[in-house]
Design goal:
The protein is of the alpha+beta class. The strands form 4 sheets. Strands 1, 2, 3, 4, 5, 6, 7 and 8 form an 8-stranded mixed sheet that branches. Strands 14, 15, 16, 17, 18, 19, 20 and 21 form an 8-stranded mixed sheet that branches.
């Protein structure tokens, strides 16, 4: 493969260039077809006129033959063009055929008549030159070459003819040939100007379309990722209900502002909770996990939990169960949500058995003493989310509480069920007495009879078959059953040695250290193993290879995205190709207006930065018209004075358009004219300013074009018989040879109307119609004697003697033919250019409007996707922290990798309302517990509001809150939901809500530090975090006190606080992220809360000895509570914070 040089394109650029060529070919298809239609029509009209005027076919045999053959060629090429496959492959060849045919016709018209004049067929060659740029499918360089060949061939051929072969060269030959050159130069420059602008517009449209498609696809991918991520943590009916509520509130505030007051008067938060009956709840706990976790490093712990719960999620999906939440090593789910299932009890029992089997295989494969304890109960639940922030789907009811106690009162390796669940099983499983009341006080108190399910998979053959059928070769832990992959662990330098187990196309590495293990999943699509493990595992080598695999996956994802983008753009181009001749619903057929008035208004109000270049091109045409008139005029003085007067108008328009450029060129001299940029900006932005300027510029060119014809009088020489041919021709040529060049100038003025590409199409049509009508009147009426006299001169040019009595229009036409008669020739070519400019103007307007529609469609779709994406993002970031959610969404998403982060010092708080358990009842009065949950929702929501302000914020959001929000929302209109405004400038910015568990509120302080800082925090910062959390707990107590006063309740808050190293965990399984705190210090904080006692007033805060020492240094008063037994930690000395002596503003608030 050759080295890519500086001027070579990469693969993506080559694909884009290929797409652009296809896009450009499609844009050239319609102009070529229209040119062929115009050519066929012109040939047909010429033949019809020829025979209707009864001209002699024998005398004009060459004319008739060439026109007929050309018509045949045009028809043939037209049918070939209609075949799109041939058009794309042979478009240049077909274009050359059209150009050559027109060139042959032009030279036939020159040499087929009885005489040849210097201006012969100049309009036809101008037409060829102009259409080479505007309608034939050639690139700019090829068009320049063909136009130069066309113009030079005409000038050289006539020059050679008149200087070598003609007996009597016409007078003023040099001036006429120079005028021809100026006309050709003007047509070539204007055509190149048109080509460059349209090519630039086309390429910009292609880039905009490609960019919009790319952005739309990226947003669509990100939206799908967010939808998938959101649905992994919230059920679809909950998330959709939240989105609809947000959109309805935004719409209400936008369209019905008078209803804001009614919304603000609402005193309750939205409650997204729904009751479901006949469901089964499963609670599962990993027995032995606490001891295992104490031996694990953070990385090992995260990998282990991710693999275990990932497998549990897979089992839940297979058994039609919905995972609700993960609490440390506790996993609970429900079957029968959101759609009721008749087999909900069987599903939960089957899942429990599968979980026990899975953990058994792990235990056998690793030698780690862990097991599963599963409890199942069937009944009714209330499910949904509560609070304002960090929503997590949860279930509440007495049946949920009972299912929890069924797990705690169960046995390791067994599925513990209630009698209610047994009734729904319909004898699908054999059971034995569970005696759960002997192991759990709640079950004994509620007199619940329990059973243990007997696993039917007892025989080894059945167990092996079920296992192989259910897991497969590439699912989690599939490699663990291959015992041959794990020999005895030899010791190297007193440390365990790593072994590799391979299955399928990929590999997994088991790193066994003591009783802990970690699994690293490698890519499954490599034929060769991505790396090899040395006798001693090196962490650096392992992670380097994993990083390389991740980069290869990212490269593959980018290549896949580029391929999808290429396919999408190809589809868009094909759609544009298929719709070229179809009537668009967005535009009317004739006027091309948009039926939607707003859309039409937007189109007409578009900025036009290229207008100054239109004026510059018009000024060039004006100058060319003046030069042509100057070469052939009889009164150069009058012409010069008129030119100076009219040029002042054009110079003034140019100065207005280029005002800002002039100021930049002369900053010192024009420093006081600060209004100049505003003038040029007004031309760009305001149609009411640029349209009059375009009209004035075009009118100036038209006046200059007809100046010799209308404003300089010409005397007609008398017809005197007997004069010689030479003297007669000399007099005629001296006085009237300017007439055809005046017509050429009129044709150039028609072209000038078309250089204003993006100016109003209706205005151009009106102007073309008016000036063409004026030209017809001048040629056929007001200046008809001049053209008749010049026709007489041309009629008798080949004769030796003038015979005045034989001159009439019919005789002139019979002798000169259609394309040499002055009047007929002038009308034919003015009509030809009128139709050509109308076609080009219509094509430009249609293309610009299609581009506008395409961009507007892309923009609208992009806005819609961004709106939905922002709604998803708002909901998602209210479920997960922004930095965690970003890992699972975007082009470089890492949802296949693990997210965890270790912190050196984080303060963790658990705050619960233990009285709520007694308050919660299920009866008809409170809608089976729904109203009780509404109060809990108010409590949690008020706790969430503490992070924003000490004062209660109104439930309904106001329009003023929109200005305070600086988050990711870009396209939402109207005020934002209140929970969005709470994220703006919270008072306790260092406190992060983690989750709610029932009536328990979990938060942490110290998670907002940047990477690296958390390991280098000084003691003052650590103290500040702890003080900040204590102040937050005090604010929660104050909030609960206010709720008690308003609701006539006596709830108390029980708070446990601890600080130390923790792990922030961002996911439980690929595609199912969460936000949790792992580590013994979080566990201790939970025990501080659960083993504490509510205060006599509203609440107490319980802390460990280390945390108490920190608080006392900050000035808080702590009292010793005594020793308590903490599971896994033994006896710990605890303290409670005296809230009545707390400082109102402490160091922690800084």
């Amino acid at each position: 493969m050759p080295v890519k040089g500086k001027y070579l394109l990469n693969d993506r650029e080559l694909k884009d260039e290929t797409l652009y060529r296809k896009f450009s070919c499609i844009s050239q298809y319609q102009p070529l077809a229209l040119l062929l239609g115009l050519s066929m029509l012109s040939c047909a009209i010429l033949l019809i006129l020829f025979f209707s005027l009864r001209l002699s076919a024998k005398e004009h045999c060459a004319f008739v033959t060439v026109v007929s053959c050309s018509l045949t060629v045009f028809v043939t090429v037209f049918f070939l063009v209609c075949t799109e496959a041939l058009t794309q492959r042979w478009r240049r060849l077909l274009g050359l055929a059209v150009w050559a045919t027109h060139l042959v016709m032009a030279y036939t018209f020159i040499f087929s008549g009885p005489l040849i004049v210097p201006w012969d067929q100049v309009p036809y060659f101008l037409f060829i030159i102009f259409t080479v740029y505007t309608m034939l499918p050639f690139q700019l360089l090829n068009a320049v070459v063909l136009s130069v060949l066309s113009s030079l061939s005409h000038i050289l051929v006539l020059t050679i003819y008149f200087t070598v072969f003609a007996e009597h060269p016409p007078p003023y030959l040099a001036q006429q040939l120079l005028s021809n050159a100026v006309v050709f130069l003007c047509g070539s420059v204007v055509g190149a100007f048109y080509k460059v602008l349209m090519e630039k517009t086309l390429r910009q449209t292609f880039k905009d379309t490609l960019r919009c498609l790319s952005m739309r696809m990226k947003l669509e991918i990100e939206k799908r990722q967010q939808e998938s991520l959101l649905l992994s943590v919230l059920p679809v009916y909950i998330s959709m209900k939240m989105k609809l509520a947000i959109m309805e509130r935004l719409q209400e505030c936008k369209d019905k502002e008078e209803q804001q007051r009614l919304v603000k008067d609402n005193n309750f938060h939205s409650l997204y909770v729904k009751r479901h009956e006949n469901v089964s709840i499963l609670y599962a706990d990993i027995v032995g996990f606490t001891r295992l976790a104490s031996d694990c490093s953070p990385k090992e712990l995260v990998i282990m939990l991710n693999e275990l719960f990932g497998k549990f999620d897979q089992i839940a999906k297979e058994n039609e169960c919905m995972r609700i939440k993960i609490l440390g090593d506790c996993y609970y789910c429900v079957s029968g949500l959101p759609v009721s299932l008749p087999k909900h009890a069987k599903n939960c029992v089957k899942m429990g058995l599968d979980m026990c089997e899975a953990i058994k295989l792990v235990r056998e494969a690793t030698g780690v003493d862990i097991n599963m304890r599963v409890g199942v109960h069937s009944g009714n639940v209330l499910c949904g989310v509560i609070g304002l922030r960090k929503w997590q789907f949860d279930v509440w009811s007495h049946d949920v509480t009972l299912a929890n106690h069924m797990e705690s009162g169960g046995l390791p390796g067994r599925v513990h069920i209630t009698e209610a669940t047994l009734k729904h099983l319909n004898r699908a499983y054999e059971v034995e007495d569970g005696n759960g009341q002997l192991r759990d006080a709640y079950l004994k108190e509620m007199s619940v009879r329990t059973y243990l399910v007997i696993d039917p998979r007892m025989r080894a053959s059945v167990r092996m078959t079920r296992y192989l059928e259910s897991w497969g070769a590439v699912k989690p832990f599939a490699h663990l059953q291959n015992r041959d992959g794990f020999a005895a662990d030899p010791m190297v330098n007193g440390k365990p040695r790593c072994k590799v187990s391979r299955s399928g196309g990929g590999s997994r590495v088991l790193i066994k250290i003591g009783y802990s293990f970690a699994l690293c999943s490698l890519l499954q699509d490599h034929r060769e193993p991505p790396f090899h493990i040395a006798p001693v595992c090196l962490a650096g080598r392992l992670f380097a290879d994993c990083l390389g695999a991740f980069r290869r996956r990212n490269k593959s994802q980018r290549s896949k995205f580029d391929e999808e983008l290429h396919n999408e753009m190809t589809t868009t181009i094909d759609e544009l190709s298929s719709k070229q001749w179809s009537k668009s619903e967005d535009t009317s057929s004739l006027a091309l207006w948009f039926p939607k008035k707003d859309l039409e208004k937007q189109y007409r109000a578009l900025d036009l930065p290229m207008f100054k270049h239109y004026i510059g091109c018009a000024a060039f045409i004006f100058f060319c018209v003046f030069v042509v008139q100057l070469f052939v005029t009889n009164n150069s003085k009058t012409l010069g004075m008129s030119f100076g007067f009219l040029a002042c108008f054009l110079l003034l328009i140019l100065a207005i358009c280029f005002a800002s450029h002039i100021q930049r060129l002369l900053p010192d001299k024009l420093s006081s004219c600060q209004w100049l940029p505003a003038v040029s900006e007004a031309v760009v932005k305001r149609p009411s300013v640029r349209l009059p300027l375009a009209v004035i510029a075009t009118a100036v060119i038209v006046i200059m074009a007809v100046f010799n014809l209308c404003f300089i009088p010409t005397e007609i020489a008398a017809c005197v018989p007997g004069r010689t041919n030479e003297s007669r021709e000399q007099d005629g040529q001296d006085g009237l040879f300017y007439l055809p060049y005046s017509v050429f100038c009129c044709i150039l003025s028609l072209i000038a109307c078309g250089v204003f590409l993006r100016v109003s199409f209706e205005l151009k049509v009106l102007f073309l119609a008016l000036i063409s009508t004026a030209y017809y009147i001048i040629i056929l009426s007001s200046q008809q004697p001049l053209f008749t006299a010049y026709g007489n001169v041309l009629y008798f040019a080949p004769m030796e003697v003038l015979n005045c009595s034989s001159i009439d229009d019919g005789a002139q036409l019979e002798r000169l033919g259609l394309v040499k008669h002055p009047q007929v020739m002038s009308c034919i070519y003015i009509t030809l250019f009128l139709v050509t400019m109308l076609i080009i103007s219509q094509q430009n307007e249609s293309r610009f409007r299609q581009d506008f529609l395409l961009k507007n469609k892309n923009h609208t779709e992009q806005e819609e996707i961004e709106t939905r994406e922002n709604l998803n993002r708002l909901l998602l970031e209210n479920v997960l922290p922004a930095h965690v959610a970003s890992l699972f969404v975007g082009e470089n998403k890492k949802n296949e990798d693990l997210y965890y982060k270790s912190y050196d010092c984080v303060c963790v708080m658990f705050a619960s309302v233990p009285d709520f358990k007694e308050f919660y009842t299920e009866c008809d009065i409170n809608k089976e517990g729904l109203e009780c949950l509404r109060l809990l929702n108010e409590i949690i929501a008020d706790f969430d509001e503490v992070r924003s302000s000490d004062d209660r914020v109104s439930v309904a959001y106001s329009c003023d809150e929109r200005d305070a929000y600086t988050g990711p929302v870009r396209t939402l209109r109207g005020p934002l939901p209140r929970w969005v405004s709470l994220l703006s400038k919270p008072k306790f910015s260092g406190v992060e809500k983690i989750k709610t568990i029932g009536s328990t509120y979990m938060a942490a302080a110290g998670l907002s530090g940047t990477p690296g800082q958390e390991n280098n925090q000084d003691r003052e910062r650590q103290r500040a975090q702890i003080g900040n959390m204590v102040e937050f707990a005090i604010a929660l107590i104050g909030k609960l006190d206010g709720i008690n006063r308003h609701s006539f309740n006596s709830f108390r808050l029980r708070v446990g606080i601890n600080h130390g190293p923790v792990i922030c965990w961002g996911g439980s399984a690929p595609g199912s992220p969460s936000n949790d705190i792992l580590g013994e210090h979080g566990h201790v904080a939970s025990r501080m809360e659960s083993t504490g006692e509510p205060g006599q007033d509203t609440g107490h805060e319980f802390v460990t000895e280390e945390t108490s020492a920190m608080l006392q240094k900050l000035g808080y008063s702590c009292e010793c509570r005594g020793l308590i037994n903490v599971k896994g930690k033994g006896e710990l000395m605890t303290f409670f914070v005296c809230t009545d002596m707390c400082k109102q503003q402490g160091v922690g608030l800084s």
